[in-house]
Specification:
With 240 residues, the protein is of the alpha+beta class. It contains 8 helices and 10 strands.
Length: 240
């Protein structure tokens, strides 16, 4: 698609009887978590950030394999499958951030991939879960499913026509938000935006995925209409 750059499903999980990463008393607490996760998922390659130089770490950030926040943690790691479409950040804000990435609007299949890893971890480790609240996370906004579904979109038409603020206000009322290229708190570069859910409590994973897909499709339709209009009036500039 000329608009959809990537899709992502992220599941936030924590382990019982362990201090959450932002409150680790020492690096050894973080290394223990990494070892437990590595033992539970032996088929994934582990890259420990404490063994990397800064350039290698920033390369992982640029490829969206890890977040900028993971670099700041003294004891952190990322587990990757062979094609790097599935990655698990260890000891960012939560003990585990399971992420499945794709190049199109394939949120349901990505959720199946992430859920398979989640089930494997749940069978091997004690994951923090409450029957009423759902998965317990460091940030209260992630409690519930612990899931963030997001789609990266290239929207030069809507940006040029100054419609992004209106769209952001509209979808915010339905529990969705627009962020920059590297997620929460990041800037918008090259007319690239992330559309994601804000609500994780009181909704099922399927509900979130269906609603986000509908919102994204409406944004895509509006972007395509603007591009067609711009093409008719100023083809060369629009092509650039």
């Amino acid at each position: 698609s000329p608009i959809v750059m990537s899709s992502r499903i992220r599941l936030a999980r924590n382990l019982e009887n362990h201090v959450h990463p932002l409150m680790f008393p020492s690096e050894q607490d973080g290394f223990r978590i990494i070892n437990e996760v590595q033992d539970a998922l032996p088929n994934l390659a582990v890259q420990r950030l404490d063994a990397m130089d800064q350039q290698s770490k920033y390369k992982l950030v640029a490829k969206h394999l890890i977040s900028p926040e993971l670099i700041r943690q003294p004891a952190s790691a990322v587990l990757l499958n062979e094609d790097e479409s599935l990655r698990i950040m260890v000891n960012e804000e939560d003990h585990l951030r399971i992420q499945a990435m794709g190049n199109d609007l394939s949120l349901s299949s990505l959720y199946e991939q992430a859920s398979e890893i989640d089930d494997k971890l749940d069978s091997e480790l004690d994951v923090s879960f409450d029957e009423t609240l759902g998965y317990l996370t460091t940030c209260p906004t992630n409690i519930g499913t612990g899931m963030r579904a997001s789609v990266m979109l290239h929207l030069p038409g809507l940006t040029i026509m100054k419609r992004m603020n209106r769209i952001a206000q509209t979808i915010n009322r339905f529990g969705f938000t627009i962020r920059g290229i590297y997620g929460e708190g990041s800037q918008v570069y090259g007319h690239i935006y992330q559309i994601s859910n804000q609500l994780t409590l009181g909704k099922t994973e399927e509900d979130i995925i269906e609603s986000l897909s509908e919102v994204v499709q409406q944004i895509i339709n509006e972007e395509m209409q603007i591009r067609e209009r711009l093409n008719r009036h100023n083809y060369t500039e629009t092509l650039d």
